[in-house]
Amino acid sequence: MRHFLFLPLALACAIACTGQQAPPGIIPLPKVLAMDSGTFAIGRETGIIIGQAELEPEGAFLQAALASLLGAAPGIIHENRTPGAADPRAVPGTILLLLKTGTALAPEAYELGIGHDHIILTAATPAGIFHGIQTIIQLLPTVASVGSGAPRVFLPCLTVADEPRFAWRGMHLDVCRHFFPVQFVKKYIDLLARYKMNRFHWHLTDDQGWRIEIKKYPKLTEVGAWRSGSQYGPYSERTYDNERYGGSYTQEQIREVVAYAAARHITVVPEIEMPGHAMAALAAHPHLGCTGGPYEIQKGWGVFDDVFCAGKDSTFTFLEDVLSEVLDLFPSDHIHIGGDECPKTRWKTCPHCRARMKKEGLKDEHELQSYFIRRIEKHVNAKGRQIIGWDEILEGGLAPNAAVMSWRGTEGGTAAARQKHDVVMCPGTHCYFDHYQGDPAHEPLAIGGFTTVQKTYAYEPIPDGLTAEEAGHIMGAQGNVWTEYITTPDHVEYMAVPRMLALAEVLWSPKDQRDEGSFIRRLENEFAALDALKVHYSKSLYNVEFKTTGSKKRGQVNVELTCAPGLGEMHYTIDDSEPTYASPKFDYTIEQRASTTIKAAIFGVIAGVIAAYKG
After folding, report:
1. Which residues contact 86 (CB under 8 A, 6 or more apart)?
2. Closest to 480 (Cα-Cα) out of 451, 443, 454, 460
3. Which of 172, 203, 277, 473 is catalytic?
4. Is 116 known to be catalytic?
5. Is position 341 annotated as part of the catalytic site?
6. Which residue, among 266, 296, 285, 250, has the nearest Cα to 187 in the 3D structure?
7. pLDDT tens across 246-297, in order?
8. Which of 36, 321, 325, 341 is catalytic?
9. For the chain, what is the mean pLDDT?
10. Could you confirm whether 237 is annotated as catalytic?
11. Cβ atoms within 10 A of the Cβ of 115, count?
């Protein structure tokens, strides 16, 4: 029996762009959505009313989105309405953006009404208005479907009352193993914004490269940003090239990205790794290690014994100087200090570390790491900020005000929540988007793991067994994109999308309203928009999976075919021909000789276009 994994030949879909109403394919699913009959036509003559001056950036954002479709920007009408709880005045032929105070609206919530001759979008904050604009943008047709400079486009009449389930809805990007330019980082942030995510975790330092300019320590990027080669091929083979590789961001570029994200109501959370994953920093400043070096920026992936020396005061002076510059660049409430995968090998024999342990009354190296994190936390707290670290910072005792990012399953997050510490969940089982998402034989080389879009969609961020009070410390979750085997922007997009969209819905939409079949149907509609945005998303969702079991008949096996719900019908052939819609339809099992070749395909009608999948 030969097993085949089949990927799509073609996808096609369309969002309604005529006067005919179509069910909206909004991701993430709104909390409340009520459809009405009819449509609202948006043309160049449509006015965008900005109710308060603080909404000018949001008005300009919507104006630019409409201009790309209409070929000309709709006009902006500036008003100075007093925010209030009273119902806003509807003005025919306009889109009103209005802040409302004195309501029960949550900070990121919004209310959207699309009527026959007007649109009203209200919220308590500009962030809520921005999220509502993203819903409007998702309802718009693509340029490909209406052509550039369409005289008008149509939106279905509806009412939305929406708010997020979790406050932390994030995506991570590792730029240390492989470096990505500012232009792509902005595109990545745009994707987060489209799906109402609000945290961008920027992993800026590691063993393989230091990516952020620190003016007091220029060697960090002059030396630490460049390695002499990179690991390639399967992880176990440990093969390396000798090509110089690296890059870094200037502080001007950092500020540019932070401002770009802030305009989209996304907080950039920087990560400066410590005490481990420090080889790039040690190569630039070897006196900060236990042995004094020399150290090499690592070509390969993994965990390395050399870490920051916890016994030298110069280590803390250096890190406090670095963090002071980082705090000046990033206004985020949380600063990520890593804390993961820190070997204690050097600390066990380092005279400076042994002396520190004796002086501070620390019984083992885990408590020394806790001392290290607590000392860093005091510096960050003194600047009015809070640290967050990977769940290893629980070992040896958690710093008093630290938040925890739980990646080694859910146990760390559960323990931290029970200690009344805030938690962001990102277990590798569901939230590591560097893992395979389909049969490895048909996927780009990855570091390992297996996480399908369906598995991500099934994730529940609040662990079982927590009380309501403890569950209140679960701030949310995020998807992590580590880039050992992700070398290009296109590859990042392939690994992140559409799993990012699945996680976005998990974090925004009410738990009891989530439905995998509904999500898949809306995701199919969204693919046209992703095509228009030139996002290189994965189509592994359309894999046909084969499962064989024994048969009572000698020399035969039973074959079951499965695919994601709602994609269409599966048809198959056993004569080596290509499946068509006229081929036998798969219903239960296929009983065939073990030497038979089975080819299968999914056929579904999406907006009247047949989408066929074959290998």
Report:
1. none
2. 451
3. 277
4. no
5. yes
6. 266
7. 999 999 999 999 999 999 999 999 999 999 999 999 999 999 999 999 999 9
8. 341
9. 90
10. no
11. 15
